[in-house]
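Allow me, if you will, to draw on your knowledge of protein folds for a short while. I have a record of one protein: its chain in single-letter code and its fold written as C-alpha cells. Kindly check, if you would, that the fold set down in the C-alpha cells agrees with what the sequence suggests. Thank you for your consideration; the sequence and its C-alpha cells are set out here:
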Amino acid sequence: MRSVVSLLVCAALPFPSIAQTTALRGFEPKDVPNEQKLEKEAQSVPDPARFREYMNFIAGEPHNAGSPRSKAVAEYILGLFKQWGLDAQIEQFQALMPYPTVRQVEVVSPEPFTAKLKEPPIAVDPTSGQPGQLPTYNAYAASGDVTGDLVYVNFGVPEDYQWLTKQGIDIKGKIVMARYGKSWRGIKAKVAAEHGAIGCLIYSDPHEDGYFEGDVYPKGPMRPSEGVQRGSVLDMPLYPGDPLSPGWASEEGSRRLPISEAKTIMKIPVLPLSYADAQPLLSQLTGPLVPRDWRGNLPITYHAGPGQTRVHMKTDYDWSSRPLYDVVATIPGSVSPEEWIIAGNHHDAWVNGADDPISGAAALLETARALASLQKQGWKPARTIKIALWDGEEFGLLGSTEWAEKHQQELTQKAVAYLNSDSTAKGWLFVSGSHTLEQFVADVAGSLQQPGTNSTLLAESITHRDRQNQEEAGPAHPQKMFTIGALGAGSDYVAFLDYLGIASMNSGFGGDAKSGIYHSIYDSIYWYTHFSDGTFADGRALSQFTATTLLRLADASVLPFEFVHFANTVTGYVDEIEKEAKKSGGSIDFSAVRRQLEELKQSGEKYNAFLETAMAKRSLDPARVKDLNADLIRTERALIRPEGLPNREWYKHQIYAPGFYTGYGVKTLPGIREAVDAKDWSLAQKEAGIVSECLGQMNHTVGQAVTELSTF
C-alpha cells in the first residue's frame, strides 16, 4: 500500500539555497556547528550497495503478512539492528488476515468464459514464478457464491451511480465491474454494496495502468495484460487495523469481536481482474453506450449493461488470525528521554514487493545504520528516537495500528512527531503532513542536495511542481514557493495522526518513472532495478532526508513547530468549503472559525518573533525550555476530539482525515466538508463549531508558548 503524497497549494514558503541555511530553527547558535557536523556524518553513511543487499534478501522471496517468511524478514531486520548496536526487539501482535481458498469468475451467458485469475511468470524476471505467492484476491471481501447480470460502473464512485440511475439502470441484484483508479478499491466495493450489488469485480484498464501509458513489462514499466492488482478492501475509513479489535491492541488472549460484528469487513464478494480477463466480460455487455470519460483503452465498445451477460462469482477464505511482527529499535534520549521521535516504514508485501515497500524500507534501514554509526562515536540524542519496521500494512495498516493502540497512553504523553515512508522511486521529494511542520520540512529539504544536480531537494521539488502545473494548466505561482500536502490514508501514519493527534509526515521520491506493477508478482527486484531507482541514488537521498529530519527533531532545544503557515493553510480550506457550500445552495457561519484562525496567525507571528529573540541568547533555562516543548507537543493534540468524526469515532483529528468515500484521498476539515457534500447544513454548522473549539484549544496552547518565550 502506498499513500499518494503530493505538493499542494496550501501555504507558501520561499526556498533558501544550501549556502543560506546558517541558522537552524530551534537550535541555539552555539549548537549549530555541532549539529551540522553530525548531519554531514549521518548523510555520508547511506550506501547504494547496502540498499541492493537489503532488497536482495527481503524482496528475494514472497513475504506477505502472516506467513513464515514475514517472520524471517522481521528476524533479519532485528539482526541488522542488533549488529549495528541498536537496542531493538520484535513486538508480536495478531490480526484477522483471510487467505483465499476459492476464487472463481466465469461468464455464464451468452458466450461462456472462465477467468484465469493468475499472473504468468516472465522469463527475464527470476522471482516472478516463485512458489509461495499469494493468489490474486482482495482481502476482507466476503465469502460468497453469486450469479447475476453484469453492469459496468466506470470507477465505481458515487457520482458514477448517479449517471446509471439517470439511465434507469438498477444495480440491485447485479454484479458490478469497476476499473481501478480515481478512488481506493475498498470504496468501489462499499459503494457497490450500498447500491444493492451482490458482487464486485475490479479490473486494471490499460488506459490507467497498461499500454496506453507506456510499454508493458518486461519491455517497459507498465502492467502487462495478465497483471493483477491485489489489495485490501477493508473499510478503513471506519477504522484501520485488526477488524476484530477497534481501539485496542490485538494480542494473544486479548478481547476480540466476533467476525459477524466487524464493521470493516466487506459485505459482498470482491475479486480483482487483469485486463486480459476483463475484456471477455466487458465485450459482451450491451445496453447504453457509456460517456466518453468512462471509456478505457481496451479494443471494445464500452457499454454499461445490463443485458444477457450473466456472471458467476465464487469466493471463500481461511478466516484465521495470524501473527504480526513489528521490529522496533530505540536510541534513548539523554536530556528528554520521555519525548519520542518515531520513524516507520513497513516490511510486509503482497508478493515480493521490491518497490512497495522495500525501496522505502531499505532507505529507513540505512537511516538507522547512519544513526547507529553516530551512536558508536558517542552521540546521544537529546530525545528518544524510535525506528520501526511495521508488519501487516498491506492488509490494512495492521502492525502500526495495533502498536499505536497498545501504546496509546504512552504515545499521547511522549510522542513528539511520527515520520513515515513507504515505497520510493526516482524523481523528486514529495512530502505531506501536519502543516505545523511545513517550515521545518522546507528547512531540511533546503539543506540537502538533489541527486545528480547542484541544486537542493527543495528547489528541485518546487521546479517539478511548477512544471507539472504548467503541463496541467494549473495555477501559476508568482514566486518559487514550497508547500506540503495534507495527509489522507494509505500508509502507517494514520494511527499516529488521526487517532492520537501526533504531528506526522509522509515522504518519498517520485515523478520521474512510471509504474504498472503495483501489488503484482512483477513488483520485483528485476523491475525496480530496470525501471525505477536502479542506482538507489534517490533512495539514498530519502535516507539522508530522514536522518537529517530525525537529528533535528531529536536535538533541537526548542521543537521546530510553526503556526502561521498552519493558520494560512486551514484558512484556505475554509475558503474552499465556503465556496462549495454556496454552489450547493447552503450557508455556514464560519465567523468563529475565522476568528480563531486569525488569532492563531497573530499568535504564530508573535511566537516566531519571540523565538528568534530567545534563540539569539547564549543559553536557555532547561526547565523553562522543557515547559515550552510540552506546550508545543500539545498543539496537535488539541485538534483531536474523543468522540471522533460523525459516523466514525476512531478518526479523531478534526483537520485531516481520509474521506468516507475517497479512501486514501484526504478530506480536510472532514466533519464540515463531508456534511457539505451531503448538504446537511445543520451538521455542517455543528462541525464548524467543533473545529472552532479545537482551534481555540490550539490557540490557548500556542498562547502559553508565547508567554513562556516572552520571559526567556
The CA atoms of residues 260 and 611 lie 54 Å apart. Confidence is low (pLDDT under 50) at residues 3-21.
